[in-house]
Each structure stands twice: as structure tokens, then as C-alpha cells.
Give the backbone structure.
Amino acid sequence: MALDEPKEEDAKHEADGFTFIIDEEFLKKIEPVQVDFTYFGFRVSSNVDFSTGASCGSSCGTSCGTDGCC
């Protein structure tokens, strides 16, 4: 997750005062997507297994697991 400005090819979703943008083609590949706010930051869940062990530079300081903690 990162701060960004919407682009023409982005889908825009608003929930609880937050606006989320995501590339529509990428969304089609990984949907459904769930974004939760936790004590440590945002947690992104999807039907895609992100558990490659690579660091995602998340605010929670861990690598992306199947929960996609980012």
C-alpha cells in the first residue's frame, strides 16, 4: 500500500472515510480484496498467496505473508 493519486485505469473504492485506489487489471487478477485497519497498520487480504518471503516494506515491519500485512 502506498499513497497515490488516482489514474484513469484505476478503480476507486470508498469505505469508512477512506478512499482506496487500485489498478483495475490488477484488481481483476487478485479479487476479492479485503483491507482491514489493525493496531500495526493496514492488513490486505486476497485470494492470491503473497507468501514469497520477500519484504514488502510494510508499516508493520514484517514480510508479506498470506495475510498480506502491509
